[in-house]
Structure formats: structure tokens, C-alpha cells
Design goal:
Blueprint: H1 3-8, H2 10-23, H3 27-36, E1 43-49, E2 56-62, E3 64-66, E4 69-73, H4 84-91, E5 94-99, E6 102-110, H5 113-126, H6 129-135, E7 143-148
Antiparallel strand pairs: 1-2, 1-5, 3-4, 4-7, 5-6, 6-7
Length: 149
Amino acid sequence: MSLLQILMSPAGLSFDRALVRWTGHSLLNRIFARQAGFTPQPALLLETRGRRSGARRQAALPYFRIDGKLLIVGSKGGMPTDPAWVTNLRSEPAVRVWIARKPMNARARVASGEERAALWAELLARVPTYAHYQSLTTREIPVVVLDPA
């Protein structure tokens, strides 16, 4: 069994979320970055509320700081649908974020128009793989801004 298979198991994903919460680094994101040929980004732990269940859901995600904004990207590797966490935050934009053990309440919003275009251009300069992900899908990959609450 490979390290990637272990990390993609329920126990492995749980371990990775704990690692991100405490250290700000994700083994899973590092593996994906290495395979795609870009520099691994620091990671945050995002907690949303399930849109139907109301249960807390957590996701370990790479994050970016651009023009003073904290950003995450709903790429899902170019799959045809948005990640569940994007759908959840569209329903309930109040989220909780941990960056290297520091919790923060935030309000999530999907960037649009000129703001999204400028942020997307900067994201592509940092992680060109996002252009490939966009080419794999017809949906517009969401760029999510996390504003401190």
C-alpha cells in the first residue's frame, strides 16, 4: 500500500487534518504538489457546516495570501462538480479556520468579476497547474476569499 493510498483512507485523511491543524502542513497536499510539479503551499483547516445535515465538516486545503486577502481554491483537480466544502459555504458562509494552531472565525465568499480575474491571474502565476484543472472542466473554478469575521 502506497503512502498516497494510506493518506486517502478515512484514517489517513483524519491524520492529515490533525497535522494541518497543529503544524500548518499537509502531507497529502505536498504529495499532490510534488506530482503536479509545483511548490507545496502552506495549508489551513477549514470548518464548514453541512448544508443538509448541519454537521461540522473539515477540509485541509492549501491557502494563499494575495493583496492582503486569504484565499482558497475549489479546484477538486478539475472534476465536473465543486468540492462539498464550496457547496457548504455557499449555503452557510460563516466558517472557522485554523492556521498553524490559531483559530479564526471568517466569512467566506466566492470572488467574482474583476476581483476573481485578478486573483485567478495571480494564482496561475504561483500554481500553473490550476490552468490545467480549469481546462478539464466546464465549471468556473471557485476562488474563495476568507474575510475575518
